[in-house]
Write a structure and sequence with these properties.
five-stranded mixed beta sheet, six-stranded mixed beta sheet, 292 residues, alpha+beta, single chain
Length: 292
């Protein structure tokens, strides 16, 4: 029995063949191993299927407009797919065609510009620190293919604004309520504090004058309302609204006694205009009578 099993095993091994038998039956000599190719694309020519390497292309989701706040940092991102290592991506400024970055290197002497790119990443980023108004304009992301492929973006620089409603002059009657409203627009974030000054002196809400309060509303547009009850002559002067980290805005307050003020001046002006037209009509009528 043992002899029979041994003969059966040897027969099976000779039929299946080992590694040496396989190499002899299917020789690999003369076959050249192809290097690995990324981003394959196939094209058929007749009965032959050719392998081509795909050219780099821009991501369809890329934004063509960016917004930055004055003095802050702007980040422009170019997404390029299927980019080979020998196809560099550059950022070029539109207004003077200056090359800012090539690959991961910065080529401008302006230290505010910086190239950002991580190995094997599809994102090529241009960072602009301390953005200035002159940085607004078009920028071009460029791939060094043949022909060159470009994608244009526009950077809009927004300058925060601060204003006191009614400036440069506000007139109020004595003993009335003073309402000064300061509005902050286009700030990257609401200012942490807004300080009011009267003739360069910080307004104290606990001063002996009394009746001083501030109402603030923060958001995309921030508003600070300074309220002073029972206006008095000493309240006249320059009031300054100073948001933290921003430019200030100023208004001159005039506290008037009685009814004399812009409203009265406007009434007197209207009366003068009406009198002028009345005189013109009368003279025209007299000339018409004399001629007839």
């Amino acid at each position: 029995m043992f002899i029979l099993l041994y003969v059966m095993c040897m027969t099976a091994a000779s039929v299946g063949g080992g590694p040496q038998e396989v190499d002899a039956a299917y020789p690999l000599s003369g076959v050249t191993e192809l290097p690995p190719i990324n981003f394959l694309r196939f094209r058929r020519v007749g009965d032959t299927l050719l392998v081509e390497e795909e050219q780099p292309y821009f991501d369809s989701s890329m934004s063509s407009t960016y917004t930055a706040y004055l003095g802050k940092t702007a980040t422009l991102t170019c997404i390029v797919h299927a980019s080979r290592t020998d196809k560099s991506v550059s950022w070029i400024r539109g207004r003077d065609l200056r090359i800012l970055t090539v690959g991961g290197y910065t080529y401008t002497t302006d230290l505010r510009f910086e190239a950002l790119h991580q190995k094997a990443s599809s994102e090529w980023t241009l960072r602009i620190k301390s953005v200035q108004l002159r940085d607004q304009g078009s920028y071009e992301c460029q791939i060094t293919t043949k022909p060159i492929r470009t994608f244009n973006v526009f950077l809009k620089v927004i300058e925060p604004t601060v204003e006191v409603v009614g400036a440069p002059d506000i007139y109020v009657n004595i003993a009335s309520m003073i309402n000064l409203t300061c509005i902050v627009r286009h700030a990257p974030y609401p200012p942490e504090a807004i300080t009011w000054f009267h003739d360069n002196q910080t307004i104290s809400y606990t001063s002996k004058r009394g009746g001083v309060s501030v109402v603030e509303e923060r958001g995309e547009t921030t508003t600070s309302i300074l309220l002073l009850q029972n206006a008095r002559a000493s309240d006249s002067g320059a009031f300054t609204c100073q948001p933290e980290g921003m430019e200030s805005a100023q208004v001159t307050l005039h506290v008037l006694e009685g009814e004399r003020g812009p409203a009265a001046m406007q009434t007197n002006s209207s009366a003068s205009v009406n009198l002028f037209f009345t005189v013109v009509v009368v003279v025209a009528s007299l000339v018409s009578v004399i001629v007839s």
